[in-house]
Amino acid sequence: xxxxxxxxxxxxxxxxxxxxxxxxxxxxxxxxxxxxxxxxxxxxxxxxxxxxxxxxxxxxxxxxxxxxxxxxxxxxxxxxxxxxxxxxxxxxxxxxxxxxxxxxxxxxxxxxxxxxxxxxxxxxxxxxxxxxxxxxxxxxxxxxxxxxxxxxxxxxxxxxxxxxxxxxxxxxxxxxxxxxxxxxxxxxxxxxxxxxxxxxxxxxxxxxxxxxxxxxxxxxxxxxxxxxxxxxxxxxxxxxxxxxxxxxxxxxxxxxxxxxxxxxxxxxxxxxxxxx
Length: 276
Description:
Elements: H1 7-15, H2 28-33, E1 37-41, E2 55-56, E3 74-76, E4 84-87, E5 90-100, E6 103-107, E7 109-111, E8 117-118, E9 121-128, E10 135-143, E11 156-161, E12 169-175, E13 187-192, E14 201-207, E15 211-216, E16 219-225, E17 240-248, H3 250-253, E18 265-275
Parallel strand pairs: 3-6
Antiparallel strand pairs: 1-18, 2-7, 4-5, 5-6, 5-18, 7-17, 8-17, 9-14, 9-18, 10-11, 10-17, 11-12, 12-13, 14-15, 15-16
């Protein structure tokens, strides 16, 4: 069905100098120009990750959350090249089968906390994932200041999760007090791709006061909306930070077991970019 504009309507659009089209939409290029790069990590160096941008979560979560609350099998190390290093333009997070602490596997969990914290924005991470039964790579966000209390009250945004027994699928999820996996009420959606471990892909969110959009290679596949029902449903109005890690096994990652012959496994990250 065609839409016909009156002369007055055409004149109004002309006076707006085409900032918006007469139908109210904006060209994609103009929309992109509104976004300003405010934080980035391009990994154009060699050695340990940049300490001005990244810190480490350390250990196995004990004594309070052994296995990081999910019965995971890895011990996260800090400033150890075998588990986290930059080379050939990529951050390499590597999970290895080796006795570390009281665990049989080592890995790294990189965090931008207090070095990269944002309320709203577009977060874009280009990465290539590990592969094999028992891997559980993730690109996600947690509250920096726990404004509404401990997990899940202050919220969690999972930009990308993958588990080894579903090698062709990634998932984007939201966790809050009302919506979380302990209650089976988490809000999640998935995308299928046969090249997650062989090619780089972009994993991103666009987050503002009204919604969180999840995107895979620039294509939106899920939206979580703020229905203005309070922080139990929407705690996403304060600072969050980024987390990059590979877990081993666990309640989800190890649901179908862990193949002990596949290690080491790597997640390669080409860049991390945050726009406002």
